[in-house]
Amino acid sequence: MANTAILRDVAQAVLRLFPWPTEPGLRTVGTPGPESPVIITGNYDLTVRRVLAALRGLDAWVVVASSRGINVWCAAAGGMLSTAQVITALKTSGIEQRVSQRRALLPQLAATGVEAREVARRSGWKLRFGPVYAEDLPRYLAAGSRKDDSMRRVRFATRERLEMACAWAGPASILLALVAAFFRPAWAIPLVVQSWAIAIMVFMVYDRLPGGEMITRRRWLLTWPLAAGLSALVAALFSGGTAAVAAAVVSATALLALLTFDFDGSTPIEGGSHFDSRDWAITLDTDLCKGVYSCWEVCPEACFEKLEDTRKVEISQHQRCVKCGACVVQCPQDALFFTDQEGRRIDPAVIRRFKLNLIGSRGVDTGSDPGV
Question: How many CB atoms lie within 10 A of CB 260?
Fold first, then answer.
């Protein structure tokens, strides 16, 4: 069993870009009772296992909703984990017969796709958005379901960087190895080593390079010599000749272009850099703001600050905004909305209805009622 779990962890790390579904339904941790906390998550296998591991030693109900086997943030942003999926999970999992209360906790990163007030209106369940990371759940619950800044902001620390490197290096190295095996079998191992080395290098240093104007192009130009040199060194170490070194440099250039094309959009650093929404700005109508603080609770970059004296919020960190739309989706007064580069207002109903596709463009119509 232990070996099977290790193999599954390795497979999911290397092929993380693909769906890994587990069975939706109800899970128990410890010996939960009618008043035990109810926690909802998507049916991405790695996420479910991390949630269950984080809650070990506690008593809790875990409702697994269908997210088509995709992680919570991507599924919520893309419309695969939505209000409808959460309501369905609550109605069909049997949780309503197990508890005496109607309060549930969702991952904070589900806020881009799940409208809490709609779930309450249609099912009677009151939702709160918990911490970004499952590992913070015990601390959050012990604090009376209150988040501090460390619980509500995404990080891009070493572990997350290495996970993303694995997610890209795995498919790339498999593809290059297959191509090499067909044409030049001796090149297969060097190309695999090169793929992993470049992916790790990109996710560890790319966004830390100096930028300025034309930031993406400048970073790419600074990174290319490193990638090309590293690839040539790998080919030489494996006793490759001139042709092998040339092939390594060409494949390194292609791999670097792939990894950096939308680097910002595949990380929690900022929104996608190649689409119309890159120039959108989050805007607050202070007259409509009633101090519900849902934006403060769900923003993964902690862009908002509470103004307790006026019972309102302010956008104190505009530069952090990744244009995920979570604050817009959750604001009950529609006090938050995007404006485009020409200052035109993007109606909140558009953000609620149209989700992000796989390349980061907001063009997926979920079919929901735009007036909701």
Answer: 21
Question: Cα–Cα distance between 127 and 117 in angstroms, integer?
Answer: 8
Q: Are strands 126-129 and 103-106 parallel, antiparallel or unpaired?
A: parallel
Residue position matching structure tokens 């090169």:
194
The secondary element (H helix, E strand) that includes residue 60 is strand 60-65
246-282 tens-digit pLDDT? 878 888 888 888 888 777 767 777 665 555 666 788 9
Asked whether residue 357 carries a pLDDT value surpassing 70, the answer given is: no
* Residue 40: φ, ψ to 5°: -105, 140
Which residue ranges form the domains of the chain, and what is each CATH number? 2-152 (3.40.50.11600), 158-266 (no CATH), 276-365 (3.30.70.20)
Q: Exposed e or buried b for every residue in 216-229, given b needs 16+ CB within 10 A?
A: beebbeebbebbbe
Q: Longest Cα pair distance anywhere in the chain, in angstroms?
A: 72
DSSP reduced 3-state for 6? helix
The Cα-based distances of 204 to 180, 201, 305 in angstroms read: 27, 5, 30
Core vs surface per residue 123-133: b (16+ CB within 10 A) or e: bebebebbbbb
pLDDT > 50? residue 372: no
List, for residues 128-140, the tens digit of each pLDDT value: 999 999 999 999 9
CA 195 from chain centre, in angstroms, equals 23
Kindly give, in sequence order, each residue whose CB lies less than 8 Å from that of residue 188, ignoring residues fewer than 6 positions away: 176, 177, 180, 181
pLDDT at 343: 85
CA atoms within 13 A on the CB side of 121: 9
Q: Is the dihedral of CA 50, 51, 53, 54 positive or negative?
A: positive
- In this prediction, residues 278-301 reach a mean pLDDT of 91
Cα–Cα nearest to 247, from 170, 176, 166: 176
- The answer to whether 240 and 187 have CB atoms below 8 angstroms apart is yes
HSE, side-chain direction, 13 A CA sphere, residue 229: 6
What is the C-alpha radius of gyration for the chain, rounded to an integer number of angstroms?
23
Q: For the chain, what percent of residues have pLDDT higher than 90?
A: 48
